Every structure is written in C-alpha cells, then in structure tokens.
C-alpha cells in the first residue's frame, strides 16, 4: 500500500508498510496513478501526450528499483512477527485523578467542570499510595513507569501530590523501577514554591491555555465568570522560563468558535512558548462549539497554513514544536507500539479519588467501564483484555488505512462516544489526523530540500 | 535517481526486530489528553 499527496509544491509518496518516504517529481507522481497496475506500454500510452516516452520509462525503472529494494509497495507481515504475536500487555502508567474538583469552569470540559458528573472530591494519600503499589505490582519487569497528576485541577490537592511523590521515590529503587511523574494544570494556583517543586519532581508539565485572549476567555473562565487569560499567562510564561523551555507543553483546545486556530498556535509561539499543542475539541454534535464534518475543509486549510508558518519560522531560526506536526522518521516508536496505540485500558489506567479504575480519564464516571478498585486490588480482566486487543489489526477501518502506523488506531474514548464501539474509530478525528500527518511529512520534506540547497 | 529522492528508508521492519520492549513513555504522558498520538513519541531503547 502506498499513499501519495501534494502539498506546498512537494509531491510525497509514503510506502505504508516499510515507513519509507519519497519526494518525487510530477512525472513519477502521475505514473503512480497507473503503474504497476498496468503494463509499461499502457502507461506510456496513457501519458504520451504529457511526457516523452523515454522519460516515462526512466521513471518506471526508478519505481521498479524502489520496489526491488523493499522501499515501495512492500508487503505487510507484522501480525506474524514474534514481537507482536508474543506481546504481553502490562500496566505501566497511571492517570491519577488527584482532584475531582476545579477552580475554573471550562465550557467544553469532558469532566463536567471538574467533578466528572459526581460529587466534588479529593484523592487521599492512602488511595494515592495504594495506586503506586498497584502500579508496581502490575508492571512485572517494566522499569520505566509513569504517573500523571490530573483532575479537575490537581494543584487543589497539592499536599497529597507531595506525599504520593515521596512515597513513590521511597520504594522505586527497591523494585528496580523508574517512576516519571507528570502533571497537567490550568496554572491558576502556580506560585514560586509550587513551580520549584514541579521543576524538581515532574518529568513533564502540561499547562492549559487555548491561545489568544478572546479564544481562551470564551471557553475558560473562573467560577465568577471572568476569563482566565490574564490570570494564568504570567504564571505559565514564568513556568516555561524556569524549566529552561524544556519538558513542558502549553496545551489548548480549539472549537467551532475558533476555526482559525492556527492564529492561536502562532499567538502562543509569539508569546515565547516553544512546545505547543492545540487540539480539536471532542464533543457531541449537538453542542454549539463541537467540530462538525462540514468544518473539515476550513480545518485542513488551517493546518496547511500552520505548516507553512512552521517552515518559515524554522528557517528564520524562530521555530517551535507543534505537537501534532512532530514526526521522527528515523527513530520514532517501534512498529509494535504503533500497532498497539495509546495503551488506554491496558498499559495505561485512570484512577479516581475513590480508587476506582477506568481505561482512561475519558471513561471515568461510566460504570460500564469500571475495571475495579485499587483499595481492593482487583482488576476486571474481561474489560482489560478487550482494550488490550483493541489494536490496529482488530479495527476494520484502520486495517485498510494508509495512516495506521502513524495514528495507531485513534482514541478508544472517541470511538466509543461516537460509535458505541471502541473498535470503530471516530471518522472526523481520523480525517484531521491524516491531514496532520501529511503536514508533518511536508514540513520534513521542505526543510530537507532547503538544507540541500 | 533523477525523479525520486528518498527522504527516509524502511525504518518499520527494522523496528519490529528490536521493538516491543514496552519501556517507552505512554502518549498521554506527553502533551495530549484527547488525541492520543503515538507517532510523535520516541523510542527509548535505541
């Protein structure tokens, strides 16, 4: 299987199963519409009005050369590969819902403004320590473990965060583990002491802001209804600076209200942030802010515009990382990881303040997906196994898709929320992801061309 | 080659031979909380 596309005056051909990426001229791009499905003679006949016959045969020779070297139209056999066939799913990451409470109100919040449709509650140190025990006991021989402090707003329960981190640090060496703590915060409660603590103990920090003031304040406001932009911006900038602009992301959400979201990304870059992620809201179609299928053409145009801006800024020495355009063509994740996807419900679980286990933060509150409780140290293996087996090869739509090794089957929660089946991906999300991959490949190709000049 | 420039070679088959150690960071721990994306992660077992 191959995928070919043109963007920004570059023709790109992706060999899906090998991961090889080629930049081709217009002649090869056109020949690939007919070859190898048709014979050389027929291809020459099809294209003789546009190209010289010898040039067409020359292009076909180059295509044949790539095929011979397993760089084009390669066969797929990963399902039979030992690394995939013998894979063993082990819990290695937790999303700790340290607070089912929040100090701001976001219109699009999947957590129902922080309480996850239940009573507002904070995790106790007892539950947090049990969660660490659960992770260590269920991670077998994995060394690298991850624990994300999430909410609601986790800093509303800062003392318990410190106790959990201290507990994790006190036992990780004994079990030959390396626990990486991370935190996702809206930034309202950040002060110098908390920043120092986070910079000392948190491997990564996600800081929530949606972009321009009017964008952010339309969706993110205090309990009194005031926008949060002016409150959080100085704190987020200080936080990024104190981390030497490493290991953090400012993370925004775009909605139907700001389909010109590229301007929000560039605004964040202009503010000096170097690591930026702005993503489409996931919401049921009846919400006025939800992305609709008819919005896709505008969104695609914005991604292309943003890709051009990324290229321009990179060349000018003022580049930034846009999370969804990051793609490592030489040392990305292995093919096994790409097939298994994000790991939600299998290697990654969410834990509520009461200790209940769910496949991920997006499933919290849905009793059909309650996997057990860390206080009782039990795990529903039937739900667990259904997620462990929700890989690319078990998703019919993904199996035929050129993007499968890049998107890894998409988000289980989105699939369930839109299709009531974790094996049927959310199609609007698929289209956006495919566009982002094309943009990422275009950026790579264009910058490579610039380097060679 | 005159008409084709290869940007990157066949990296997936190679990664299947060495891959699957499971030590890499889960995608939710990096930046995203809604569009969990794997391809922009890094292998930690180079």
From TrEMBL, chain A:
**PANTHER family from the entry?**
ANAEROBIC SULFATASE-MATURATING ENZYME HOMOLOG ASLB-RELATED, RADICAL SAM DOMAIN PROTEIN
Q: Give GO MF terms, alphabetically.
A: 4 iron, 4 sulfur cluster binding; metal ion binding; oxidoreductase activity
InterPro entries given in the database record: 4Fe4S-binding_SPASM_dom, Aldolase_TIM, MoaA_NifB_PqqE_Fe-S-bd_CS, rSAM, rSAM_sf, SCIFF_rSAM_maturase, SPASM_CteB-like, Sulphatase_maturase_rSAM
Question: What PROSITE patterns does the record point to?
Answer: MOAA_NIFB_PQQE, RADICAL_SAM
The protein's name in its UniProt record: Radical SAM core domain-containing protein
The record's CDD domains line, in alphabetical order, gives: Radical_SAM, SPASM_CteB-like
User: Pfam families under this entry?
Assistant: Fer4_12, SPASM
Which cofactor(s) are needed, names only? Answer: [4Fe-4S] cluster
Do you know which SUPFAM superfamilies this protein is assigned to?
A: Radical SAM enzymes
> Which part of the chain is the Radical SAM core domain?
88-318
Taxonomic source organism: Anaerovirgula multivorans
Which keywords accompany this UniProt record? 4Fe-4S, Iron, Iron-sulfur, Metal-binding, S-adenosyl-L-methionine
UniProtKB/TrEMBL annotation, chain B:
Q: What is this protein called?
A: Six-cysteine peptide SCIFF
Domain of life, source organism = Bacteria
* InterPro entries reported in the protein's UniProt record: Six-Cys_pep_SCIFF
Question: Which Pfam family is one of those matched by this entry?
Answer: SCIFF
